[in-house]
Write a structure and sequence with these properties.
149 residues, alpha/beta, globular
């Protein structure tokens, strides 16, 4: 599995921590690609793809638009977006959201319901577990909505 991340904001850090803890607890081979803030993020996605993982997990709202550009061209690669979602995902993109998350990109800016405090350790851990379970059970191309955790 590859964790693709960008940003150093509190929500992104919480998601990265949850993914790394989950991988350690489940003994998953996790590699990380950190994209430079403010730069073209597509090359970072390409680096993650070149690693040949079973799953690419993204953390960081700035990855939403670049993923929307890249994912339709790599339909055999599974992607999991936690704490955000692609506006028009293909069958290989699964997302996990909750009230306070659900950034969709496309230059729309942050939702008025966005709440960085909603990215709790418990919710981020639940998101990675739910998302990976969906991908493993071939329930992909959907948005999983987490109720209060």
């Amino acid at each position: 599995m590859v964790l693709l991340t960008t940003g150093d904001d509190r929500p992104t850090r919480a998601l990265v921590t949850a993914v790394k803890e989950w991988a350690r607890e489940t003994h998953v081979d996790l590699r990380t690609v950190t994209a430079a803030d403010g730069h073209d993020l597509v090359p970072s996605i390409s680096r993650a793809l070149e690693m040949g993982p079973d799953l690419i997990v993204s953390a960081g709202n700035d990855l939403v638009d670049p993923l929307a550009l890249v994912t339709p061209h790599h339909l055999s690669q599974q992607f999991l977006v936690v704490g955000a979602e692609l506006a028009e995902p293909t069958h290989n993109v699964t997302a996990v959201d909750w009230s306070g998350a659900s950034f969709r990109g496309e230059g729309l800016g942050m939702s008025s319901a966005y709440d960085p405090e909603s990215f709790t350790a418990q919710r981020c851990a639940a998101a990675i577990r739910a998302g990976v379970a969906a991908v493993l059970n071939e329930l992909t191309g959907i948005v999983i909505w987490l109720d209060q955790v």
